[in-house]
Amino acid sequence: MSKPAEPTTPEITDHFWHDLEIAVTRDVTLALAEDIGTGDLTAKLIAADKPAVASVMTRVDGVLAGQDWFDRTFTELDPDCEVFWHVT
């Protein structure tokens, strides 16, 4: 999770970033425990040694939300995972 170099508004403080970090950690931990608790059957369909690539494309403009949760989830699953965001 990358904190901006300078807050964009006075309301964004270190306390906010600390709370966000706690929320992301909690949410991802709970989600992975629920999904993988008894084994991830879907993931077993893909060989562990094969690289994977995914793309998400939309037909209309939208708002990207949840990037910190997405990044953390994949980092927890594989610390060597690289996620590249190309948002225009």
Give your account of this protein's structure:
The protein is mainly α and 88 residues long. It has one domain. The protein is 39% helix and 0% strand. The protein is built from two helices and no strands. The chain has helices at 14-36, 67-77. It is globular and about 45 Å long. The two termini are 20 Å apart.
Q: Count of DSSP helices?
A: 2
Average of pLDDT: 82
Low-confidence stretches: none
Number of separate structural domains: 1
Q: What structural class do the secondary elements suggest?
A: mainly alpha
Radius of gyration: 16 Å
β content, as a range? under 5%
Shape: globular
Quick one: biggest sheet? none
Short description:
The chain is mainly alpha-helical.
Write the layout of secondary structure elements.
Elements lengths: L13 H23 L30 H11 L11
